[in-house]
Specification:
- The protein is α+β, with helices and mostly antiparallel strands.
- It folds into three domains: 167 residues, Alpha-Beta Plaits (2-Layer Sandwich); 54 residues, 5' to 3' exonuclease, C-terminal subdomain (DNA polymerase, domain 1); 131 residues, DNA polymerase, Y-family, little finger domain (Dna Ligase, domain 1).
- It is built from 15 helices and twelve strands.
- The protein has a five-stranded mixed sheet with strand order 5-6-1-7-8.
- Helix 4 packs across helix 6 and helix 13 packs antiparallel against helix 14.
- It catalyses: DNA(n) + a 2'-deoxyribonucleoside 5'-triphosphate = DNA(n+1) + diphosphate.
């Protein structure tokens, strides 16, 4: 059983730092004429989706995951931009380097946010609030970007605190304050509670973290799963003893699914393949790497298992690139053997931090990567089922 006890005398000091309206603010550094204006970044075509919007645009009701066409109706005077994700990645590297000047333990989460372990740094930078202000000033001076910092005894509390620090502020919650701080908040404010879990809890008449923390464990197990209920309930009380450490970069990334009954329908297989490619692509981009090739894994009803792989023309990290390659492998495999499939998997390999190589055959070689990153941003904020690419 996990130890729920907390030693306040040895409380950790964890920062969660988030750059406010990151894409917009980077564009404003490139073009000062954008300052003070409503700016919307994302897909600009008729089927485009908003990735992020400036606070000026948000006042009109524009928000992430909204159709661009709707955003244009709400705020017709806004400046709509497709964005430059290669530029954002370069600025992100500078941002992370600044953070490493203040702590040896920096764990990036995405291009615009990271955790820092600031435990025991009081002699160097003063109290946590003062240290946070120092870091915010360093980021502002070096990059011209506003940052919000949440401070807590754990990743969980720091993350939730940073939402209360926005925009461009600092907010601290100590361990003895965490349960009371969490209690009135909606269950969806707890990291890890997505739309499906939120719906399951709503059916139990649970709408706040305080209600979740004190709910009978039996119904929670049925709603969230036997292995998740107790863990989620501890987190709803603001308890998180997970260590802060950067994940070791994998040599390959893969995902697979086993069907309840064997599937022979090509459309059903393509639908599953698409979801798997998106899962793999999201993990690939969050790792900060690109892949050199993709592979598929198929297991038939008789448990015969095959794998097929293909190298990309140039290293990449876009969902469409992964899907196109995996789909071609699937089509070939189905031609060779048309039996029903029990399991399907997708993987990428040859990972590295290679610079994107431009293909002479592609009129817009970064479009796939940029669109995929915009979708990642929306899913991070609204859940993995909030948006999906159209059928290929």
């Amino acid at each position: 059983m996990p130890d729920d006890s907390i030693n306040f005398d040895k409380e950790r000091v964890i920062f969660h730092i988030d750059l406010d309206a990151f894409y917009v603010e980077v564009e404003r550094q490139n073009d000062p004429n954008l300052r003070g204006k409503a700016v919307v970044i994302g897909g600009t075509g008729p089927r485009g989706v908003v990735a992020t919007a400036s606070y000026e645009a948000r006042k009109f009701g524009v928000h992430s995951a909204m159709a661009t066409a709707v955003a244009r109706r709400l705020c017709p005077t806004a400046i709509f931009m497709r964005g430059n994700h290669e530029l954002y990645r370069n600025v992100s590297k500078k941002f992370m380097n600044i953070l490493r000047e203040y702590s040896p333990n920096v764990v990036p989460v995405s291009v615009d946010e990271a955790y820092l372990d600031m435990t025991g740094t009081e002699r160097l930078y003063g109290e946590p609030i003062d240290a946070a202000d120092t870091i915010r000033k360093a980021v502002r001076d070096a990059l011209g970007l506003p940052a919000s910092i949440g401070i807590g005894p754990s990743k969980l509390v720091a993350k939730v605190s940073s939402e209360h620090a926005k925009p461009d502020g600092v907010f601290q919650v100590r361990q003895q304050e965490a349960e009371a701080f969490f209690a009135p908040q909606p269950v969806r404010n707890l990291p890890g509670i997505g739309p499906k879990a939120g719906e399951a809890l709503a059916k139990l008449q649970i709408s706040t973290l305080g209600e979740l923390a004190t709910a009978p464990i039996g119904p929670l197990r049925r709603a969230l799963g036997p292995n998740n209920a107790a863990h989620v309930q501890r987190r709803a009380r603001g308890i998180d003893n997970a260590p802060l450490r950067e994940r070791v970069k994998a040599k390959s990334i893969s995902a697979e699914t086993t069907f309840e009954t064997d599937v022979s329908s090509r459309s059903e297989l393509e639908k599953s393949l698409k979801k798997l490619c998106e899962r793999v692509g999201t993990r690939l981009r969050k790792s900060g790497q690109r892949a050199r090739g993709a592979s598929i894994k198929l297991r038939y009803g008789d448990f015969t298992t095959i794998t097929r792989q293909r190298t990309f023309q140039a290293p990449g990290d876009g969902d469409q690139l992964i899907y196109d390659t995996a789909h071609a492998l699937l089509v070939t495999a189905m031609r060779q053997r048309g039996d029903a499939i029990r399991l399907i998997g997708v993987g990428v390999s040859g990972l590295g931090e290679q610079a994107a190589q431009l293909s002479l055959l592609d009129q817009n070689p970064m479009a796939d990567s940029d669109t995929s990153e915009a979708i990642d941003t929306i899913r991070d904020r609204f859940g993995s089922e909030s948006i999906s690419r159209g059928s290929v």
